[in-house]
Amino acid sequence: MDLGNHGHSTQEKQTNSNYDVPEGVEVLGRYDAEFTKTLSKDALKFVADLQREFRSHIKYALECRKEAKRRYNEGALPGFDPATRSIREGEWICAPVPPAVSDRKVEITGPVERKMIINALNSGAKVFMADFEDALSPSWENLMRGQVNLKDAVAGTITFHDKGRNKVYKLNDEIAKLFVRPRGWHLPEAHILIDGEPATGCLVDFGLYFYHNHSTFRRTQGGGFGPFFYLPKMEHSREAKIWNKVFEKAEKMVGIERGSIRATVLIETLPAVFQMDEILYELRDHSVGLNCGRWDYIFSYVKTFQAHPDRLLPDRVQVGMTQHFMKSYSELLIRTCHRRGVHAMGGMAAQIPIKDDPVANEAALELVRKDKLREVKAGHDGTWAAHPGLIPSCMEIFTKNMGNAPNQIATMKRDDAAKLTEEDLLQIPRGVRTMEGLRLNTRVGIQYVAAWLTGSGSVPLYNLMEDAATAEISRVQNWQWLKYGVELDGDGLGVKVGKELFGRVVEEEMVRIENEVGKDKFKKGKYKDACKIFTRQCSSPTLDDFLTLDAYNYIVIVHPVEVSKL
Questions:
Q1: Would the CA dihedral through 240, 246, 248, 250 be positive or negative?
Q2: What reaction does this enzyme carry out catalytically (predicted)?
Q3: Which pairs count as long-range contacts for 461-465, CB under 8 Å and 24+ apart, including other chains?
Q4: How many Cα atoms occupy the beta-carbon half-sphere of 419 within 13 Å?
């Protein structure tokens, strides 16, 4: 049954009889005996307590986002807040970095799937960021199995039997440190109702994981600290302040020292780049730095300037870290973090090894090496990789340039970045727009949404590992080009993007997708549904804030109670 935003029937309310739930909590997701330990009465009460204390703060923060959007749409530009100048100019530092995570040279990311978790923890990376957010399709099954998998991983007992390969996967003696990324503030969890309202997705992800694992994690992985988190999609320091209060309440509720929980914030929205000091200040007892979430940052640039036809982006493949606004963002992030005594993490290498083409594979690896060399020389303390095959190359470059030091916090102050201005951070990227750019956006967007609808949030496409951020760039760029009827100036043919042209491109790309994936997979996959969602969002008169918020309604499934359980 598709719940969407349409309330719930009495049939759904019966699902509570399967899970032992506290007052005011309803679980509408499928009953599974395996999930009952995760969804214990005490764990659900813990999540409900967080929800009740912070829901009004979260609603206010989301209202403030809408208000900021209204200002940008009326012509305002994001910038540094004069009211918080004293925080930016003050001489304060964050709490010392826990020894367990002082060395973060290479971090691998991926969804909370069982085999992925084992391979990532065994990969040789220093950190594994297990993802409930952009690399996961948030179906009930994926979320609950993810919690089960993480509990087994923290306990050190996780195994996986791949029947197809007849291979058993288990953890090595030496594993990466585990960070967990919950969903952003804006995403609901429609399978769990608290006082009649859908729970906040990130409080479910954080609350269940923290409640079940804080004690074991601090003993076995954190050296007395932890658990460790990544926090996504923030737009303002008031959102960091909520997280800090959530952490303090969680620590108090289970009786661990204040400052045990640590988190790295992704700077992946344009408004947040002007709030980096303020974000660190709010989280100063719980911070382990900031990270350049560069794909989402590009998406946010387009979204922030959706009503500014003078700020159109070129093809997304041309918007790299050498563009002035991207380079400025990276340098200011490094300077800010190091001045405050915490890690400045670099961006994602999304390439996947190309097994059947050694020449293309070497060319892709060379691109990764160049990108990572630029990062380490700029002063980043570590970087992200999407695939275990990239880790040796990334590690070699960071180790060679950093020697035996675990990080560059004390040695690369980047005081030269203090002179960066609002103009530097907002400079329009240079480049051209092409028909191939429009086509690539369309076929990547449709294929990603199709995968997401069938339960995959991390999707290999054209030798890159794509997550929701890439689909978001594709969508908002198509939307902006359509809205302003832009000329595809890179082709020299004077063609302008309009409804008719876009409709033809969609049809042709659907044929291409069918040819590439094969008729059988195309028929079984949700490509037609995905095409509808993606093209509707690209053609909509107003731009939706998030693709995943709309598409979420298609994956919410509420199960009636099983007869045998009655």
A1: negative
A2: glyoxylate + acetyl-CoA + H2O = (S)-malate + CoA + H(+)
A3: 463/351, 463/352, 463/354, 463/360, 463/364, 464/350, 464/351, 464/352, 465/350, 465/351, 465/352, 465/386, 465/387
A4: 1
Q: How far is it, in rounded angstroms, from Cα 198 to Cα 172? A: 39
Give CA separation, 307 vs 70, 310, 424, 501, in Å.
10, 9, 20, 22
Strands across the sheet containing 25-27: 25-27, 188-194, 197-200
**Residue range 46-91, pLDDT digits in tens:** 999 999 999 999 999 999 999 999 999 999 999 999 999 999 999 9
Beta bridge partners of 189: 199
Given 114, 181, 414, 443, the catalytic residue: 181
Query: Which strand (E) or helix (H) includes residue 169?
Result: strand 167-170
CA separation for the pair 281, 342 (Å, rounded): 12
Alpha-carbon distance of 273 to 80, in angstroms, equals 9
Return the amino acid letter for 284: R
- Are 334 and 414 in contact, with CB atoms under 8 Å apart? yes
Q: How confident is the model at residue 563 (pLDDT cuts 50, 70, 90)?
A: very low
**Residue 303 and residue 478 in contact, taking contact as beta carbons nearer than 8 Å:** no
What is the distance between the alpha carbons of residues 546 and 542, in angstroms, rounded to a whole number? 12
Task: Dump pLDDT digits (tens) for 320-356.
Answer: 999 999 999 999 999 999 999 999 999 998 888 898 8
Distance CA 334, CA 292 (A): 10
C-alpha span between 178 and 117 (Å, rounded)? 9
- Residues ≥6 apart with Cβ < 8 Å to 262: 98, 101, 225, 226, 228, 229, 286, 287, 288
Q: Is 357 a catalytic residue?
A: no
Q: Which residue has the tokens 């003993």?
A: 219
Overall pTM > 0.90: yes
**Please, are residues 130 and 179 in contact by the beta-carbon 8 Å criterion?**
yes
Of 131, 296, 381, 467, catalytic: 467
Which residues are CB-contacts of 58 (< 8 A; sequence separation ≥ 6)? Answer: 185, 200, 242
181 in catalytic set:
yes
